[in-house]
Amino acid sequence: MRYAIIAAGEGSRLTQEGVALPKPLVEVGGESLILRLLRIFMVHGATEICVICNDRTPLVEARLKEIQTAGISLSPSAEKTAVPLRFVVKSTPSSMHSFYELADWLDGDEPFVLTTVDTVFRETEFAEYLAAFKSCLAAGNDGLMGVTTYVDDEKPLYVETDRRQRITAFADAVGGTTKRIETADEGSGTYVSAGIYGLTPKALQTLRTCVARGESRMRNFQRALLRDGLQLQAWAFSKVLDVDHQSDIAKAEEFLKE
Predict the structure, then answer these.
(1) Engineering a disulfide at 46: which of 14, 41, 50, 236 sits with its beta carbon 3.0 to 4.6 angstroms away?
(2) Which domains does the chain have, with CATH numbers?
(3) What's the pLDDT at 188?
(4) Is the predicted pLDDT of residue 254 greater than 70, yes or no?
(5) Mean pLDDT within 221-239
(6) CA-closest candidate to residue 155, choices 86, 88, 73, 244
(7) Measured distance CA(24)–CA(173) in Å, rounded
(8) 89 forms bridges with which residues in the sheet?
(9) pLDDT at 10
(10) CA triplet 53, 240, 39: central angle to 5 degrees?
(11) What is the mean pLDDT of residues 27-54?
């Protein structure tokens, strides 16, 4: 399984609130956000991990180079393990464009899971999600999107599903500001995106088309996936947090202790 991490945001809100470290190096529970994701992905069979960070955070680039050379420990008492890590240093106008910069590495015949560096979830639930992703692909679907009923975003993306948890729409508001994809048994549930995307390389053609059309934002890419006819399922996490503010750090730490 390939994994990808978008770590190219500026973290401006954290900086304005007095957090000195760039967001990927902010620690939650004694572990930096970037290291936590790398460790979890390695535990779950990463064949390659692709990362993008911006060119205004040299500390992040230096840390990634160190990890490439020295590896990481998968548990407190374990020796360091080599990480199949690739990374690119580039500032982009949106998360969708950051994803685009990783697309060539993710292309091929292997599925991948993409997330942003500040996504905090329970490791046990992530393991269940990965198992569901494999089953989802075996059933002929094109992707499994992590969703949740817990709203922790200032501008959440709402995800509408039918009774079989097939995604029918991505909307900016409950009830939808976008045209729904008509199905015979729609209307089963509404969630918000958890920012965890399990996809096949088939989705990369949609991504490239979106960039060529001058579009931006991950939510527009997700809508384009439905327009292009990709079959996407939803998998509900109990809770997923984003670390956007200083107060989110303590909130994430308490969440991981629950």
Answers:
(1) 41
(2) 1-121+242-258 (3.90.550.10), 138-239 (3.90.550.10)
(3) 59
(4) yes
(5) 97
(6) 244
(7) 29
(8) 53
(9) 72
(10) 50
(11) 97
SS3 68: helix
* pLDDT greater than 80 at residue 47: yes
pLDDT of 80 over the 80 cut: yes
Dist CA 85 CA 105 (whole Å): 11
Tokens representing 32 are 């930096």
Tens digits of per-residue pLDDT, 159-199? 999 999 999 999 998 765 444 434 434 445 789 999 999 99
- What tokens does 169 get? 């729409």
Question: How far is 88 from 186, CA to CA, in rounded Å?
Answer: 40
